[in-house]
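User: Please look over both lines:
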Amino acid sequence: MVLMTAGPALAGYGAFAHDEASGKYGFSWNEANQKQADDAAIKSCNTTACKVVFRLGPKLCGAIALTDDGKIWGGSTRPTRAAAELAAIQGCQKRTKVQCQVKGAECNK
């Protein structure tokens, strides 16, 4: 008897990138591996100074919350999108008195 296992087709990797100087951000989800997720997030951020600020693996949700100028941010990974969004806002608000808003949130397969 041969047992088949699920391969990378079911993988879901994501990343969030941020440029501290400009406040720009980008994110990716449901990529085949972490390198592709990192590359897609940096490409989405679209500046040469963008760096991956956090990653999320399969079956996890991630969110990033920022101030309007994008300079202050908070990010989170959680089992559900709502929990990730709440934690991202809370993380951002700890750093500023200005209102933070969720700018991106996704869940991986």
Remarks:
- The longest helix spans residues 81-93.
- Confidence is low (pLDDT under 50) at residues 1-8.
